[in-house]
Write a structure and sequence with these properties.
The complex is a heterodimer. By secondary structure, chain A is mainly beta. Chain A has strands at 4-7, 10-13, 19-25, 38-43, 50-54, 58-59, 67-72, 75-80, 89-95, 103-104, 108-112. Chain A is globular. Chain B is mainly beta. Classes of the chains: A mainly beta, B mainly beta. At the A-B interface, β5 and β10 of A face β5 of B.
Chain lengths: 113, 115
């Protein structure tokens, strides 16, 4: 299985400040079809995960533009340009390159200072 | 808008089985692939299985192979996940999800396993 490793595991951010989360995969997530099968989700307290970013850098419909995804190969980053109170929760990266084995990172908890 | 509504919380004894349902609405059910993901307390999300609602073909994570069965009832637009030989470590919230990028999720079903 592809192992997904996130850092940091938690971060505390002042509203209005930026935040960045790293996700590294144990092998490249670039498929032969040219797509990179890396996704970012946010799980708010008491809710199911919600999709933020698909295929490494595409913002999902309705996701605020303060969220952005970047990276390629095995190294990926989720950035929040200006953190807001509603961004609190646990962020997960996920890979679906190596079907049928889909794997998630261990999660990064974001709290507001 | 696709909606997934799951069955309610369950309390089970070790060794028992549990069957969680996931009712879909908002689009043609047979066009869905329904994924099952679980989240044990303090653990990362863990993919378990999926089913192509159109042809019924299933795929299972090796970790759960032999213990999990996913099925669907197209007339009821509902998918099911049954986990057998339950142990305390299976205590978790179980989610169904669908969409090309897993963008639609059910609300989750808590399964609590305790003697």
């Amino acid at each position: 299985d592809i192992v997904m490793t996130q850092t940091p595991l938690s971060l505390s951010v002042t509203p209005g400040q930026p935040a960045s989360i790293s996700c590294k995969s144990s092998q490249s997530l670039l498929h032969t079809d040219g797509k990179t099968y890396l996704f970012w989700y946010l799980q708010k307290p008491g809710q199911p995960p919600q999709l933020l970013i698909y295929e490494a850098s595409n913002r999902f419909s309705g996701v605020p533009d303060r969220f952005s995804g970047s990276g390629s190969g095995t190294d990926f980053t989720l950035k929040i340009s200006r953190v807001e109170a509603e961004d609190v929760g646990v962020y997960y990266c996920m890979q679906s390159l190596q079907l049928p084995s889909i794997t998630f990172g261990q999660g990064t908890r974001l709290e507001i200072k | 808008q696709v909606q997934l509504v799951q069955s309610g919380a369950e309390v089970k004894k070790p060794g028992a089985s549990v069957k969680v349902s996931c009712k879909a609405s908002g689009d043609t059910f047979i066009s869905y692939t329904i994924y099952w993901v679980r989240q044990a307390p303090g653990q990362r999300l863990e993919w378990m299985a999926w089913i192509n609602a159109g042809n019924g073909i299933t795929t299972y994570s090796q970790r759960f192979q032999g213990r999990v069965t996913v099925t669907r009832d197209t007339s009821a637009s509902t998918a099911y996940m049954e986990l057998s030989s339950l142990r305390s470590e299976d205590t978790a919230v179980y989610y169904c999800a669908t969409g090309a990028w897993g963008q639609h999720w059910g609300q989750g079903t808590l399964v609590y396993v305790s003697s």
